[in-house]
Design a protein that fits this description.
The complex is a heterodimer of chains A (270) and B (503). Chain A has 270 residues and is α/β, with parallel strands linked by helices. Chain A has four helices and 13 strands. In chain B, 53% of the residues are buried. Classes of the chains: A alpha/beta (270), B alpha/beta (503). Strand 13 of chain A pairs parallel with strand 5 of chain B, so a sheet runs across the interface.
Amino acid sequence: MSVGKGISVIRRGKLPRFVEDSTGYEVVLRAEGLHWRELNRLVKREAARGAARIKLEGVCGHRYIGTGVREPVELVVRGVPGNDLGAFMNGPRVVVYGNAQDGVGNTMNGGEIIIHGRAGDILAMGMRGGRILVREGVGYRAAIHMKEYGNCRPVLVIGGGVQDFLGEYMAGGLVVVLRLHGRKGEFERARHVGTGMHGGLILVRGEVGEQQLGREAACVPADEGDLEILGPLVEEYTRHFGGDPDQIMSGVFTRIYPRSHRPFGGLYAY
Amino acid sequence: MISYLWPRFLVERDLRRCIRCGVCTRQCAFEVHHLYEEEDWVYSDESACVGCLRCVTLCPTKALVVRPNPTQPPPNANWTTEYLQNIYKQAETGGVLLTGMGCDKGYPVYWDRMVLDASQVSNPSIDPLREPMELRTYLGAKPDSLEVERVEGRPVLHTKLAPQLELAVPIMFSAISYGAISYNACESLARAAAELGTFYNTGEGGLHRNLYRYGKNTICQVASGRFGVHADYLEVAAALEIKIGQGAKPGIGGHLPGEKVTGEISRTRMIPRGTDALSPAPHHDIYSIEDLAQLVYALKEATDWEKPVSVKIAAVHNSAAIASGIVRAGADIVVLDGIRGGTGAAPTMIRDNVGIPVELALAAVDDRLRREGIRNRASLVVAGGIRCSADVVKAIALGADAVYIGTAALVALGCHVCQRCYTGKCNWGIATQDPRLTRRLNPDVGARRLVNLVRAWSHEIMEMLGGMGINAIESLRGNRLKLRGVGLNQEELEILGIRHAGR
């Protein structure tokens, strides 16, 4: 595998070339020309050294940013991070100034991901803890197989619309879809929402058509309890991305929930 | 609705021997035996009997015999008992037929159609009782070449080696999840693996907190449900295995029914108690070889490139091409699970009709990887129907680096292959979470039985190696000249890459 000039430069002891400014608390890494493996090695090293914030400049398709980092460091990403941003992540906070690609928060266990843009497919797949906020819309199969357990309850807030199979196999956690961005009718075209859903909750701003839902999911207008859950999350969303929380909360909301915790209980001949 | 099913087994009780002690009534979780003390009478409801032989084994006076019910439908080569009973069962429930363990159909077992060589006169055989014999096996990617420099007369290796698993014997315990089997069964496997210097596999059900101490001998699985997969789980493992497929149920996922998701299992799988644990059929982040590479490297990145990553697939028609893709996707180990591979629960039709025998898949995959010049980049492990040490030797001669044993390990723990794992009522305390049943398997005894089994097989493997004049398992790997076919046709010989006996 080519790790390019990154490794050869390090061998020659010229690492500071990539470390523009190291205050001991904040480090800036330039990702241009680095293979993702090298970039992540630098991130892990700086996080282990005690950096409080690592800024990654010029990120372009670098995968697995935040993966394997155990320290509660803040990673600020400028550019377009590659697939599996924050996969298996357990601790860091990642802020992306740009769009993210597929697999954000894959099997994520803890930490926070804030995306000032869109996210791709299978966002938050198998996510079990932590929170993800996306300013705009997301791709297919968001929140697929999201789970919850004990005190771990993952939260995913999507500012725009979604595509098909939102919350497929969902077993726990909370998804909020605000529909503030994106093309008209984007959400309405999403189908198979909550297919195989057997836990968790999806709260959508506006109305949801029955034809959009999978067999295992049902929807009702959100109640007081749902709005109480929503309030602080909408506030958090506007704190990150701007907007008026009261205005967002003024619309109607719909709750999508699983019909059963045992969707396939009667499938077999014992 | 009246059930049209008739008992599969007959329970015969010798009343002269029976002392009405009630052991059989207490031992049978299927509630076959009923003791009426006042009437001095024991009644056996044979319709519930699964033939696991627990009562027969534990009866202190050996008063019981369980045998297949001689009552048969009218003779018919097509409409056998099995098909009739399946149809009655489905007509009565409308459900998908479920079963456990591996395929029990009579597909050819190629291990039994291959025989091994032995030295006579020249290249004398070796006696492993007195001469060194090496079974140590390393699993992981091997470099294309080694760069060695001689510094002051001593060789210094410059090539950076990929992480390896060191096995004292080329036998590991297959992936069996906590949930499919009891905690005591898991602990037995973990302790035996540690004592033997080999590895056991968590399966997809996560790793119980108490078993973290055996991490050095644990392969942690990452399957489509991602149950219990978190930072500590990835960190404690000796290697990680991405489960794509399973020989018993290629192409489909799994459902652990909610009633089995008890407190401990919910904690270990990290899912809510009492909900169905659904393993989707595909990994939804893997729709291509490129996506698989992405997960392989995600796991490497998550564990600082310190652990081998294995990918397990079911043996299917196109295994060779798939395995080639898996190796190119960066996997350090490829696991092939054949059609006879076991399961805690699978739809009967899938188990018995989907997939191919692992012997053929192994030969095809080994061939393909060699032809492409990438065989060194990954180790090959085979699973699915390894029943004895000779099967292990034949698998290695055919091209495997090591084998996984699952059913054989469970049989060592007491399993009688009644195929009712999915009921959760395993009388042997293995495939159950009922505390009344799980305590029947003492992990001290379980670990001892497993260690005994693998030690015995190791001795036998050494004897077979010695007989061939070979003193290291490495010299046997892919050495197909040591195999000959018996009663195989030309095509089968060609696929297996062996000659017929006599040639």
